[in-house]
Amino acid sequence: MSDACLSLRNISVFRGERCLLRALDLDVSAGDAIHLIGPNGCGKTSLMRIIAGLTSAETGDVQWLGAPLRTDRDRYAQNLAWLGHNAGLKGDLTLLENLRFDNALRRNRPAAHVMAVLRRFGIESRADVMARGLSAGQRRRAALARVVLSEAFLWLLDEPFTNLDQAGQADVRALIAEHVGNGGAVLFAAHHDVDIPETRVRQLQWQTVDGQ
Amino acid sequence: MGSDPTDDQHSVVIRAVELRPLTVFAVMLGREWRLALRRLTDAINPLFFFAVVATLFPLAISPQRAVLQTIGPGVVWVAALLAALLPLNALFSQDHGDGTLEQYVLAGQSLVALCIAKTVALWLVAGLPLVLVSALIAQSYAMPVEAMPTLALSLSLGSYTLCALGAVAAALTVGVQRASALIALLVLPMMVPVIIFGTRAVVLASGGEPAAGPLYLLAATATLAAVLTPLAIAAALRISLE
Question: Fewer CB within a 10 Å sphere, N or C end of chain B?
Fold first, then answer.
């Protein structure tokens, strides 16, 4: 049909009785950067969770390589990096212990590589600090470091810019550009306009449905 | 994986990673163990609860040797199981709260292996110490020394069954506010046969009779729980995240 890896067909998002999104079709291929843009509460996170396979959609389905997600969740998840609202760090483990665990579940790269990724995010000096002692911005950087460590094809980033300073936000933009340039795909949700350097970003803008 | 051409840093491709359930199990077990050591006060709470409850009974009923010997097996068993219920509420709700649960589900590795590791870690932290302390408490109930191995074995099997069933209940109630009472309501009725076989084994052993029969039944229950519950835990976690 097409070279789309991920296809959304006729996806609707409901919150209670309210329809937030109706009959969405979307194709994601290698090299795509897609920006879900809309005001707070419009259903960006709900849609992201459906795409990640955490929630099932009320209608329609999400297909990975032409097959519905539930046929092989693990294969799909292996190619997916998920950045949610919570950083996914254990407060009682150090930053390095946290990321080593994720690395062991994923690509299992040597310890030096994990440190190199931490350095890239400017948090290598915090490697031995308990995660609960990190600032909100540092936690977000750690979560982004996990995304990079996963070396996954598809990145789902829900509000990747929150809690980050100017430099951090620029880093995320550069990161997305680099991943897309390397042949990966990124879907990110943000409620403001984002310019990704040297990358064509497809915007998915929310329009009101159901009169609300 | 070493010869994987995609190891080049600058290409991102769709890949199929082999499942490594044993590695996942070992890594998760190590992580949970480390977390338990860092939160030592949480880990020893059930132990204190067990000791205090078991000490209250002689005070409330009678310190006579004959009475203690009669109620001993039942008190030790019931107190141990109630103590083992205490850490269940936090088992998955903490993972849910800090976002690690989503990462486990989306790790692309065997969620069942992760769930087995969580259950085993729970038993090592909440079940095994109770088994060890039960020997001391049984002493104060004038239980004969010959019954100690039976008590330890039966409590080990029973507490593992409780941890496994409790993990299912904990997984089902992730995201439910104050789920402790609900977990107890779900789990304790299912523990009735285990308590009957467990106390029976200890009573028989205390009287110098063979206790193999109830122990076999306990072992069968524990095996069944150990094999079947991980699938239920994994499924319940996926449902709870919806």
Answer: C
